[in-house]
C-alpha cells in the first residue's frame, strides 16, 4: 500500500513541481519583460531629461553671452560719455528687459533726493542771499546751538575761526579754517540743518546763511551777497590743504621689502628676569614677587655702561645688589607697582639706560643730577654743583611735588599723593642696585 501510494504521490508531486516551476518560469519571464519595459522607459525619460538639460544649458550660455555683450556695450557707452566730458551724475541709462516690478520714479521724487552740490557749483538751485539776511536767519534758526557769531554754544560745533591752529596738535577745524569747498557748506546746511529740522531751509535762506557764516569767519565783507552766479568764484581758505593720498603707489611698496636678516647679534644674553621687569602678569601665585621672602626676592647684576654710572660710585661696571634684610619685601613689591608710573621715563636695573628721564639705579646716596650722560635741567645742574645728595627725605619731598621741590625741573610728573606710595617707591628704588 505504501509503495503504491508513493508511486502515485511522487509522480503527482513531480508533476506539480514541474507545473509550478513552469508557472514560475513564465511568471519570471513576465516579470523580466516588465522590468525591461520599465527600464526602457526610464532610459527614455533620462535621455529626454538630458536633452532638456542640454537645451537649457545652451539657452543659458546664450543668455550669458548676451549679457556679456550688454555689459561691453554699456562700458563702451560710459567710456564715450566720460570721454565726451558729459555729466556723470545724470541718471543711469534706462534698463531694458526689467522684471516688471515697481514703477518709474517721478521727476519730483528724484529731485527730492537729488540735492547734492558739487565743488564747481553743479546741483545748486538758483537763488541768492546776503550777509544781512543771513544774520537774521542764523540768529533765529542756528544761534541757539552755534552761537550768535558762529562761535558755538557749550559743546555744539564752532563754525568760525581757528585759522592759525591747523598746524597745532589740537587744531580747531571750522567751516572757515578747514573746509576746502564752499559747496560742502551749502550742501551740509541745506541737507541737514537746523539739527532736528533738516531740509526746512529754502534755497535763498541757505545762500544767506552761508554768506553769514563766511562773514563770521572774516572771509567776506558785510555787504556780500552769495548767489548761484558768484558761488563758484569763491575760494575757501583751506582749499589747498588737502592732498590726494598717494601712499598706496609711493610708499606701501617700500614697506614690503624683505626684512633685513644680516648683521644680527651673534648671541643673546639674559640680563634680567621678566617678573622683575614687570612684563609677566601677576596673580595666580606664580610671580616671584607675590610671596617672596628677602632671600628669594630676585637680585640681579647691574651692568650699566660706565658712562651711566653716577660719578661718585665705584667705577667698576659690575656690582651685585644685595638686598638688606630690613627692607620689607612686600613693600618693595608694592613699590615696584608704583614704579609703573615712572617707567615710561625712567629705567632701573642691569644695563638701565636713560629714557626721557635719567636711570635711577642706586639713587639713595647718589648726588642729585649726577648721571653724566643725561642732560639735566638747570635746577638739577645747580643742585649737583651744590653737592646735594638724594636721601629718603629729599626723595619723598621731590616725588610728592616735583615742581615745587625742584622749581623749573623738566620732569613732567604731577607727584605721588599717598604716603604709602612714597614709602613703597623709596623701598623699591633702594632695592634696585647701583
Ligand atoms: C539743535 C542744535 C542745532 C541747531 C539749531 C543747528 N545745528 Fe548745526 N550742528 C548741530 C550739531 C549737533 C552738529 C554736528 C552734527 C554731526 O556732527 O553729525 C552741527 C553741525 C553743523 C555744521 C558742521 C560743523 C562742522 O564743522 O562739522 C554746520 C556747518 C552747521 N551745523 C550749520 C548750522 C546752521 C547753518 C544752522 C541753522 C540753519 C544749524 N547748524 C542749526 C546742532 C545744531
Ligand atoms: C614724564 C616723564 C617722567 C616721569 C613719569 C617721571 N619722571 Fe622722574 N624725571 C624725569 C626727567 C625728565 C627728569 C630730569 C629732571 C630735570 O632735569 O629737571 C627726572 C628726574 C628724576 C629724578 C632725579 C634723578 C637724578 O639723577 O637726580 C628722580 C629721583 C626721579 N625723576 C624719580 C622719579 C620717580 C620715582 C617717578 C615715578 C614716581 C618719576 N620720576 C616719574 C621724567 C619723569
UniProtKB/TrEMBL annotation:
Transmembrane segments: none annotated. Keywords: Coiled coil, Electron transport, Heme, Iron, Metal-binding, Transport. The keyword Electron transport applies. It comes from the Bacteria. Residues 129-217, 330-433 form the Cytochrome c domain. Residues 36-70 form a coiled coil. GO terms for molecular function: electron transfer activity; heme binding; metal ion binding. Pfam families: Cytochrom_C (PF00034). This is Sulfur dehydrogenase subunit SoxD. It comes from Roseibium hamelinense.
